[in-house]
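Please, structure for the following, as tokens.
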Amino acid sequence: MHIIIGLLTALGTLLYVMERMRIDIGWLNPWAWKRRRAWSKMATGNPVYGLDKPIDAIALIATAAAKIDGDLSIEEKEALKNIFRNTFNQSEQEASQLLGSSVYLLGPGEDVFRSPEKVLQRSLEKFSVEQKKSSMKLLSEIIHVGGSPSSLQQEFVNKVERVMNPDDGKNSW
């Protein structure tokens, strides 16, 4: 027993001396480590996966659907602005800002193209049934702007539709 007390005293003394010498011993605290880890993941992660509002998430998805087969054309930009103005009841300036922020967040877009479910994950439960239907209609409109949609656009919209309207695997029996 006296050996255990001696080891604990030595450990306590060592930690006290390290703290007095300004050596960081915060890594010993598991709660602080968990907070730092969560903050680090949030700060260094892709910002498109942190969209909480349905309007921001679907604006990004719509921009991605228009941009998946190349850069946005002028008519696609105008169609997106019109959709944002009419569907989301925004002013011209707000629609332009939403389009600009969506294009900026999208960047090259490979992450969004590969996994739209991650983009919609945080905001999906906030969508109403009517908003989900409206979002799919919006996506259908935007991919038909330049004529018939490309296979990449159609595949992307199908991925989004599977996320928005998941089949629970329930049989009718």
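The two ends are 67 Å apart (CA to CA). Residues 2-20 form the longest helix (19 residues).
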